[in-house]
Amino acid sequence: MSVTDTHRTIDAVWRIESARLIAGLARMLRDVGLAEELAQDALVVALEQWPNTGVPDNPGAWLMTTAKHRAIDRLRRSKLLERKHLELMHELEAEQEQQVSVVEAALDDHIGDDLLRLMFTACHPVLPIDARVALTLRLLGGLTTGEIARAFLVPEPTIAQRIVRAKRSLTKAQVPFEVPRGEELAARLSSVLGVIYLIFNEGYSATAGDDWMRPALCEEALRLGRVLAGLVPQEAEVLGLVALMEIQASRTRARTGPGGEPVLLLEQNRAHWDRLLIGRGLAALERAEKLGGTLGPYALQAAIAACHARALTAEATDWPRIAALYATLAQLAPSPVIELNRAVALSMAFGPAAGLELVDTLLDEPALANYHLLPTVRGDLLARLDRLDEARTEFERAATLTQNLRERELLLERARTCAATARDKS
Predict the structure, then answer these.
(1) What number does CATH give the domain 111-197?
(2) Where is the RNA polymerase sigma-70 region domain (predicted)?
(3) What is the residue extent of each domain of the chain?
């Protein structure tokens, strides 16, 4: 394997293993910032050694062992409690005692999931909401600062500052590495749900890179969502989020072509949709609805996804119902992005002119100034109205805004199609 291939493998391993690595270290050290630092140290060692020695059979375990050794060195240098030192040594040297300690830890916490502990720790009320979400995406999603910034539609330095300050605040406040209970659990649930969905979205439509999707992130978000649903089965919004992710994840195989190119929703082969995931999603949505009360934002989005899932063909989609659901969602959780999605639904239900009218009211929204989907949607509506030159300009602008190579290629191809069609008609 070449050095380049090894580095690519290391990057892939890091994407998969970093969250578990940081979470495991944080459980032992009770310091999220130090855990991330040691995990990064282990990554540097891998970059130095693996090109010469090869990638180990179990790269995740290798990284954890390396990080633990560094943790021991750090504990020795800082003269921390000998008990902590011995705990780490036991994990490295005594497999039987390690298994016992894991069982004992599970008895102390009814979830027994390091990643979930890390998520609730990062979402502690000592941090502002934005900082909680940014830190958790960084630690559990393995996302770069730039990727998180694009997810938030804010400048990258802003996110970087939030993450640094958040880690300092957790350390200063000595926030315990645990899952909260009772009223505190309910209070922190909303930000946790937001984090899980942002992680899922980054996997579902990658903001940057050469790939349209990053399925490992979707799978991790789904796993965390399912654990949460088991923990709080009477929370409709948890069930709604799980339903939404299950249904969206069902389209994974149909969302790319043979060469990895994106395939848009209305053009997907629905025979490739995963009916098992759809069934699970619809069942979760039904449980949320049976709990009664007004559906929250995630459950409403799940109801929209369910409209697509129930339609065997694109033409059979109940677009008037989707438009109505988006109108309800816009009242409950006002957002320019939701309004943009509502415009798409209106265009499908009542014609492109109706959608374009709403889109044009969003052109001066500061949050959408660099949001590539605004010119993408506008370009699509203009093309459907046969205003091809204007549509081409919008697609070209959208291509300059996206950081995803696959998406940029798709947008430029749509711009070329508009130009060619306009020439044929002239």
Answers:
(1) 1.10.10.10
(2) 21-79
(3) 1-108, 111-197
